Amino acid sequence: MNPKVDEFLARERKWQEEFRKLRQIILDRGLTEELKWGQPCYTLDGQNVVLMHGFKEYCALLFMKGALLKDAKSILVQQTENVQSARQIRFTKAQEIAKLEKTLKAYIEEAIKVEKAGLRVEPKKTSDLAIPQEFQSELDGHPALKTAFEALTPGRQRAYIFHFAQPKLSKTRGSRVEKCVPRILDGLGLDD
Fold first, then answer.
1. For 6, phi and psi rounded to 5 degrees?
2. At residue 98, does pLDDT exceed 90?
3. Among the CATH numbers 3.30.420.40, 3.20.20.450, 3.90.1150.200, 3.20.20.80, which is that of 3-116?
4. Phi, psi dihedral angles at 130 (to 5 degrees)
5. CATH 3.90.1150.200 domain position(s) in the chain
6. Mean pLDDT of 60-88
């Protein structure tokens, strides 16, 4: 048990009981307990396997390579359509964890096997992503923008595409594109 996780649990108000139950299940699998991104994270030979985290409506067990798990019970959730590898199992009360304990142990064991085997999720290529029409129009009408965008790293390109695609309204998507054009022309990523 990592003392930093003890401190985290002492401060946790909403999901304390649920986290304690999950923690015991995970530690029984022989993983190393760390605190990463402010959350309890469990690793194997320095590689992240599973993480516990809480939200307003639920707490979750997040499998870093969950997309590679068989999910025999169909309980894994993809947080958003942009998350390629990680998958969650969500809980709203400790009784749900107790009821699924055997299943959770099996999923954690499978995640450990995936990590030991060195399996990796192949990320989607930037070229496979749909570019929002508002941005595509800017690229088509502005050759320097297209050249600057293509010069960005694939990760920076994806970040912009995701950022532009999020809003439901075309007007909002267009506004985001307009605000980001100078940054792209300067060779900067969304968060640089």
1. -60, -45
2. yes
3. 3.90.1150.200
4. -80, 125
5. 3-116
6. 93
